[in-house]
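Subject: two folds for Thursday's group meeting

Dear M.,

Sorry for the delay on this. The cluster queue was jammed most of the week, so I only got both jobs back this morning. I'm pasting them in the order they finished. Each block is the input sequence followed by the predicted structure tokens. Could you check whether the formatting survives your parser before we put anything on slides? The first protein is the one we discussed after the seminar.
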Amino acid sequence: AVTAQASRARGVLALAGGRGWAAPFPSPAPRPCGMNAVGGDVSGWQWAPLEARRAPWPHRPPPPQTGARATRDELAAERTMKAALARQVCVQNQESARVQRDPEAVEKEPVPGLAVPACPPRNLLELRGLLKQMLADGVRKGSDPQPRMAMLKGREAEGLFVLCPDSYDPQAQRVDVLKADDPAERDAVSAGICVHVASALEAGA
């Protein structure tokens, strides 16, 4: 203890005198190679092999071993089977939902005077000629069985327009028209740009 205190005091005095830092405790002397901490020779020792032991704390189990990868043919067969099962389930759901309706059932009355004709059904050409004859009879009687068609001045490239009945405004001089190829598009135009186009029945064809 006396020696350690004296060494510490010498270090403090050396620092105060400007001669640099002096360690307060003496550093141990280096050991020769092949010597242990107590000075014994370890060059002839037999080192025991290392042993792997289980950790004393809980740990996550290793992942399972994966098998061999499926071939291309096996993957294609699996996709085909899944597609067939999906179609089967879809058909089953449609069949099960066919008889299920959210609202209540409403009884429908038959059409009055509806009767099944005793003669065989007519062909399309005969029915078309009968309809044309009925329209021609209506034109001769002064009725208007067909919608009135018109072309718009300055908009001839858009094709024919249908004049909406009872849409003429005499004060604004405007009328509503529908595009013949797109009836959902309705527009109000000036009546002065509408050029009436006579139908085949009106022209006497």
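Second protein, same layout:
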Amino acid sequence: FATASLGTRSWLSGNNRTIRAAMNPRASTLDLKSLESVFALLYSFSVFGLILFFAYICEYHPPFPHSSKSYDRDQFFFLAGILLLASAYTVSKNEKKETPFLKSKTNLAIEQRPPIERPAYFVEAAETSPANEVLNRDQTEEWKGWMQFIFLMYHYYHAEEVYNSIRIMITCYVWMTGFGNFSFFYLKADYSFVRVIQMLWRLNFLVFFLCFTQGTTYLLY
């Protein structure tokens, strides 16, 4: 109600900046003295609440009766093929893309060192952009997105014949999540308590609210 009231007030007064701030996908620090910041917080809470409400309705009060799952191999692999084609269509060259690069204090110290004289036969490796690094963030995020799509298809169709492949994908997904956090700690050297709490919150906040609203156990997730 508060979100709708503030949104209507901003729209009627012509203050579209407040609404644009709430639509901005990039988060910013909360400022209780700023109407834009408070409205953005309320808007995010409202969207998240509607998602949880939709999940609750579909689980306990579905508008349509639940039907039994039926597996169709042709349809399953056809949809997987469409995903492959759509992914291939979005391929782009990394050289033209600027990716934010996290530099640690160690890397900065190395860059500031005076040049070292090397033998004539020494060949220095060519410099690469962050997007060309092995297992860079864009690459791992895309792989995890592919696997999430396959996870949904597996549960939707109950495709038991790909069970072993799904278990391997889940293992890769968990490993890449750990690898991403390790890379951050290694590059930024930020081992503060606040950083650890932020990481644990990101990994568990959705599980916590699903347990609270759906009446399920933490172990289920």
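Two things I noticed about the second structure. The longest helix spans residues 35-60. Helices lie at 2-12, 16-23, 35-60, 73-89, 105-111, 137-157, 163-188, 193-214.

Cheers,
T.
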